[in-house]
Amino acid sequence: MYRGDSTSYSNQILTFNNEKVYRGDSTSYSNLIATIRDGKVYQGDSTSYSNLIATIRNGKVYRGDSTSYSNLIATTDGGEASGAAAAVFIILM
């Protein structure tokens, strides 16, 4: 994921690699932000329910384990990958 309309290495915000999301262009454990598994976004390297941040379903991002409209925090134009990007972007804000 890049800042603005850039695809330049210097504007890279996030890297997605093997269910993991890292800051910038790094895949170092010290830059690990989130783990994405089965439509769920977890904080850091965890897949524990206690570290569940968001649920992604049908291009929509919900807070925690909910898929209730009252917990809808973002809508994307794509599936799980764009939902994951939206969820992580929201975390960083």
Task: Please explain how this structure is put together.
This protein has one helix at 80-92; strands spanning 14-17, 20-23, 32-37, 40-43, 52-57, 60-63, 72-75. With 93 residues, it is of the alpha+beta class. Strands 1-2-3-4-5-6-7 form a seven-stranded antiparallel sheet, covered by helices on one side. β3 and β4 (40-43) form a beta hairpin. The chain is globular.
> Given the structure, what is the number of helices?
1
Q: What global shape is seen?
A: globular
Q: What amount of the residues lies in strands? A: 25-35%
Q: Measure the end-to-end span.
A: 15 Å
Please indicate the count of domains.
1
Q: List how many beta strands DSSP finds.
A: 7
Helix/strand structural class = alpha+beta
Q: Which strand order spans the largest sheet, edge to edge or round the barrel?
A: 1-2-3-4-5-6-7
Spans of at least 5 consecutive residues with low confidence: none
Helix content: 10-25%
